[in-house]
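Appendix B. Chain record.
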Amino acid sequence: MSSKTEINPKILEAFLQAERRAMVSRLLKGVVHNLSGVIQQVRLPLDLIELHLSQDQIQEAASTMDSVQAGVTKLTEELQLLAGRSSQDCDDEIRELELSTLIEEQLAFWPGDMFFKHEARVETDLPYLDTRTKAPYMDVALAFNALLANALESLKESGENLLRINLADQGEMVWILIEDHGPGPNPDLGDSIFDPFVTTKDAEHPGLGLFLARKALEKWGGIIKHQGNEPCVFAIGLPRQG
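Structure tokens predicted for this chain:
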């Protein structure tokens, strides 16, 4: 049973803007984590070069430079990724999106989350489908990351670690399916889990995540469904761009 709580449109937009900024902050954390690894990749060979030069092992030092070059290249790629994502995540322009690409790009930021990196076992099935849709990148990314964050939190609570992300093609809609083996929402809540301020979690979770995720997609013809527990599956549906 849904409470049908209504929120003033201006307040709703303020909530959405805050959630978009929070999403960008989470992604930046992932970039910092990725760059830390790249810096270590560059730093170690430089230390070895210093050692080699002190021992007059110039030829070995030259070969070590290949590793340094690889690290610099990776660092450049990460900075380009950050610049591109920051631009898209702060842009509300409606554009054609390839959902499989969006999923891969967003997952690349999540290793900054220690549970995601070290404990979660993420399986993706992104078959070659026409998964183009038309919507602002940041709104689709917001919805995807909200469901992904919920799934990871559910896995932490349950002690499970398997997370599946699939793409499905059903007629005029393309679906992103996020599946985990955590407890899932209370079945008694029904569709009210998408209402504002509905939550079974602690005070740190105000119950806006699913509500804002659904609202972010509604104006673009998108929907979010809870397809049941055991396993828990949430689905994002977006109109196919013909």
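Further analysis of this model is presented in Appendix C.
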